[in-house]
Amino acid sequence: MSNLINLVDYAKRNKRHKVTFERTELRTLLEVYSRRVATGEWRDYAVDQHGPVAMFSIFRHSYETPTFSIVKTRNGKGFDYAVMSSRRTLKKAGSLHEALKVFDKPLSQLIN
């Protein structure tokens, strides 16, 4: 015999383990991204979700590895944000706005 599963209950149980970007966070990320696209520095982005990590990756060219990644992770009561370039952490912060301040500098200073 088969068991019926209430999909709403199943989704609620499994949702608390996933980390996602909220709508306001995505809007903030896309504002920063669009400014750099307008100057020709960035060309593509991707949003990934892997259980306890959400990642917004930025590419100079679509066929390359990400130039930058903004990573959101759970830290007990809230979330932590980190801006990464390759395997190097450029900035860690408790808020997205604070982490994105790293992009106030010219890109040449960030990558070198």
* Whole-number mean pLDDT: 87
* Strands side by side in the biggest sheet: 1-2-3-4-5
Oligomer state of the chains in this structure: single chain
CA-to-CA gap between the ends?
A: 62 Å
Structural class determined from secondary elements: alpha+beta
Low-confidence stretches: none
Tell me about the largest β-sheet.
5 strands, antiparallel
Our estimate of the beta-strand percent is 25-35%
**Total beta strands:** 5
Order of helices and strands: HHEEEEEHH
Number of helices: 4
Shape: elongated
Measured as a percent range, the helix fraction is 25-40%
Q: Cα-atom Rg, whole angstroms?
A: 17 Å
Description:
The protein has 112 residues and is α+β, with helices and mostly antiparallel strands. The protein is built from four helices and five strands, in the order ααβββββαα. The chain has helices at residues 7-15, 23-38, 96-100, 107-111; strands spanning 44-50, 53-59, 68-75, 78-85, 88-93. It has a five-stranded antiparallel sheet. The longest helix is centred in the first third of the chain and has 16 residues, at 23-38. The model has no long low-confidence stretch (mean pLDDT 87).
Key words describing this protein structure:
4 helices, single chain, 5-stranded antiparallel beta sheet, alpha+beta, elongated, about 110 residues
Summarize the structure.
By secondary structure, this protein is an alpha+beta fold. It has helices spanning 7-15, 23-38, 96-100, 107-111, and strands at residues 44-50, 53-59, 68-75, 78-85, 88-93.
